[in-house]
Amino acid sequence: MYWVRDVADPNLITIDFDETAEDPIVTITNISRSKATVTMTIFAYDEANPQPVEASVIIEVYNDACDMAVNGEGATISKTDLNADCITDIRDLAEMAAEWLVDISSPGPLPK
Predict the structure, then answer these.
(1) Who contacts 41 (Cβ-Cβ below 8 Å, separation ≥6)?
(2) What is the pTM of this model?
(3) DSSP code at position 109
């Protein structure tokens, strides 16, 4: 037997969990427009071990894989994805072309 206690704001995420399943799957869907952090505590017990055992995990839920790649801790996106939309395409080439041959050198000596 398993059960899950969730302390997250229901306005940020929805959780789908079948407590009767032998191997339960928890699906967390982010319904907000920003990262949601979920602390999930899972309790497990059976006839041989009637005292519940508890474990917690913190899960960061992003809008999609691109949002995680751009904003996730330790995440990086491709250096060629100049507009950070997780796709290297003609828009990135256009962004590079717009800056092509722009002189960013100093116009003279820098003051001390």
Answers:
(1) 4, 5, 6, 7, 54, 55, 56
(2) 0.52
(3) P
